[in-house]
UniProtKB/TrEMBL annotation:
<dbReference type="GO" id="GO:0016405">
    <property type="term" value="F:CoA-ligase activity"/>
</dbReference>
<keyword id="KW-0576">Peroxisome</keyword>
<dbReference type="GO" id="GO:0005777">
    <property type="term" value="C:peroxisome"/>
</dbReference>
<dbReference type="Pfam" id="PF00501">
    <property type="entry name" value="AMP-binding"/>
</dbReference>
<dbReference type="InterPro" id="IPR000873">
    <property type="entry name" value="AMP-dep_synth/lig_dom"/>
</dbReference>
<protein>
    <recommendedName>
        <fullName>Luciferin 4-monooxygenase</fullName>
    </recommendedName>
</protein>
<dbReference type="InterPro" id="IPR025110">
    <property type="entry name" value="AMP-bd_C"/>
</dbReference>
<dbReference type="InterPro" id="IPR045851">
    <property type="entry name" value="AMP-bd_C_sf"/>
</dbReference>
<feature type="domain" description="AMP-binding enzyme C-terminal">
    <location>
        <begin position="231"/>
        <end position="307"/>
    </location>
</feature>
<dbReference type="InterPro" id="IPR042099">
    <property type="entry name" value="ANL_N_sf"/>
</dbReference>
<keyword id="KW-0436">Ligase</keyword>
<comment type="similarity">
    <text>Belongs to the ATP-dependent AMP-binding enzyme family.</text>
</comment>
<feature type="domain" description="AMP-dependent synthetase/ligase">
    <location>
        <begin position="65"/>
        <end position="182"/>
    </location>
</feature>
<dbReference type="Pfam" id="PF13193">
    <property type="entry name" value="AMP-binding_C"/>
</dbReference>
Amino acid sequence: MANTKEFIWELQKLKKDQLIEIIVYKTVQENQQISEELRGFLERRKQDPKPTVSEHNLAAVFAHNLAKTPIPANVDVSSLFLLLIAGSRVSPEVILALRKMLHPLATIIQGYAQTEFCGTNTFYDTNDKDHRKLFTEKPHSVGLPGKGYIYKVVDLETNEILGPNKQGELLVKAPTVMNGYYKGDSKDAFDEDGFYKTGDIAYYDEDQCFYIVDRIKGVIRYLFHMLSSAEIEEILTNHPAVRKAAVFGYPHPVDLHHVTALVEVDETSEVTPEEIREYVDNQVPDHKRLRGGVKFVKSIPMTTTGKVKCGELKSFMEKM
């Protein structure tokens, strides 16, 4: 397979026995709300006898790399009309960069799902014109409420229910949510009203579009501040030399934790850790600066689904 940051552009060359499935055209039902322009585009794809990739799910960590990688001249991605990014949040800049690379009618959206829900927690209907307007205007959003789902965002300290544009833990009650963990203790997974605790910091706006800020375990406590590691990671990955970044709080005897970053950089780059640190520190307020420093690594500890192994970062750095 091609280098991970280029693999999506090689999809059309994959053989059937490889891991990534080649997905062919899906019929659009007559009663679906879809623009005539997009319908015509899909009809042309339907008539194309050559197998093509029309939809693809992509881990967020790869999306960052793809946004910095030009499409090879010999690769045709004109058939790709839906790209769903999931696993962790990506910045609007990444979404906008990918939009410029694909067909003008292609849809790129961020998904939000958990195993405990047997699928997605929030939704966008790509065939609904109102939904399309929202996710086009709000590339950072992960979707709207689903039918039969009940949501609440609560304060991390007081459990007070919060209104629009207030960040707190997202709790959800839904018909698809699990009953509990098999042979495990599930008492702390739900609140007293039966809402599942997602463990994610989120908020919603006046249009009821949801936004994921970070995992609660990704919050860094510096003095009396609660900082989002995902926010700093977004800034880092916007640097042209950075391929991946993982931010965490390294323990400090006085300040509780210092914001620290492990970074993978392009092998051809001559950038230094101090330059990366200055790049971030110049864009954030004083309390969010990388006081723990920046360490270059060959490979950040990742799960098989493309998520950072947050619990291993401190020990990983100490072994360097």
